[in-house]
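Technical note accompanying the year-one report. For the benefit of new consortium partners, we illustrate the data format agreed upon in the data management plan: each record pairs a sequence with a structure-token string. No post-processing was applied to the example shown here.
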Amino acid sequence: MGKNQLIDKSEEVVQEAEAKPEILPTPKKAVSSKKQVLNGVAHINVSYNNTLIAIGDNKGQIIAWSSSGLLGFKGSKKSTPYAANMVAKDVVEKSKKYNLTNIKIVVKGVGPGRESAIRGLAGTGLNILAIQDKTPVAHNGVRRPKPRRV
């Protein structure tokens, strides 16, 4: 009795499949409308070896980013002021498709490209609302090691 039921059900499924042509579910189209970001925040991370700039909206979601290594600078050329200026122009060009107009700049770190990156962002025609420095400063540091006993 169990075998007949299984065979009957499988035959019905095969007959139904033959009767109905296969209709694939249509894939849902992604929302193609780009979000409009009028006010953005540019995070500039400057080190002795590289310059990174990321532009995000007020919620913190990154819309464009760039670094001097991404642009093809290698070795000690990544930390130059010229490379930092080029990174700033590149990241603003990437963020133009979001209609970015106002920007707040947050700088972190010390390095040779610090001022040049800010000038690069200022020279692109964006309205700079504020410049903020978030460079970490150690207050006391770690404990010194004990003197060596010989």
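Partners are asked to follow this layout when depositing records. Strands lie at 39-46, 51-56, 62-67, 102-108, 127-133.
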